[in-house]
Design brief:
Length: 248
Amino acid sequence: MHLWQRRTARLFRGTVVCAAVAAATVAARAAEQATLRNGFTLRCDHHAQVDGRVRLYLSASEDNYIEFAPAEIDCFEMVPDPPRAAAVAPAPAPNKNAKLTPADLHEMLAKAGDEHNLDVDLLASVVKAESGGNARAVSHAGARGLMQLMPSTAAGLGVKDSFEPSENVRGGSAYLDALLTRYHENLSLALAAYNAGPEAVDKYRGIPPYHETRAYVARVIHEYNRRVLARQTGAQRLAAAVPAKLQP
C-alpha cells in the first residue's frame, strides 16, 4: 500500500508551518500567534471559524490557510512580526568540520517520520532532491539546509538554525506533513507546493506549469518509488533466506 493511502488514517499531530516556502516578506506589523494544545506555537496573519473548523490564514488574502479542530487550539495572542532584517541575514560560514553521516541522517529522518507519520524513504527522497544531503546547502533564492527552508518559513516553524540538521529536518517534515493534509494526501500536489508554494498550486489548481517544479515532483516520486522497491526487494530476499520452519 502506498504512503499516501496509508496516511489517510493518520492523526494530525499539530506541528505545522504558518509560512509558505517562498512567502514574500511583508512590512513589520502585528500578527497573530496560535498556541496549540500540544504546546506548539504558530504565527499567522489572522484566523476565522469556518464550518466548525478554525482556519489560520498565512497571509492577508484568504486563499492560503491551514485548518485545525477547535479543540486543538488553546489560545490566540497578538505578537509583532520579526524584524525584516532577520529574513535577509547573511548565511553563516560553513563549518567544514561538521560531518553528517548517513546513519545520523537516517536516524533524524526516522524520528521525524515517526512524529509526522511520514515514510522515512519519502523524507530521504525530498532531502536528496533538495540538498543532496548537504546540511550547509544554500540555494540561489536563500533556502538553507537539508530540506531547504527559506528564512521566513524557518521562522514560522520555530527553527532557529536551518543549518542545524535535526532542526531543519523537524521543520521540513512538519511543513510537508501540513501540505499533505491540505491537499488530502495527494503527494504530487504536496511536493509541488513544497517547491513552488501553495499559492501557485491553488492558482493553477494543480501542479504549476513551471519546468523546475514539474521536474522536482517527478524526481522526488521516482526516487521514492525506487527506495520503496529496494526495501521491498530486500525484505523478500531476507524472508527467502530464512528457513521455512523459522518463519512466523
